[in-house]
Amino acid sequence: MRFSVSSGSGQVLATGQLFIQEDSDGDLRLSFRTDRGRIIEGGKIDADGNLTSASKDLFRQFFLTWGVMGITLTSKGE
User: Fold this and answer.
1) Residues 76, 6: contact at Cβ < 8 Å?
2) What CA–CA distance (Å, rounded) separates 53 from 39?
């Protein structure tokens, strides 16, 4: 599934895909790969599969990447 990342004003900052990757410690992380190949690493996925803290960390990384508040992630349904 494809997503777009947008600022609070509606400007599309990136398009890409969410994915799960294993880090060097063997933990699973929720991450985002832009169409231009940039990987933005989110937080660790809880052992029970809950994505709440992982997604909060991913949005924190979106802020650090683009310096924009009010970021939204929208499914493009493709």
Assistant:
1) no
2) 18
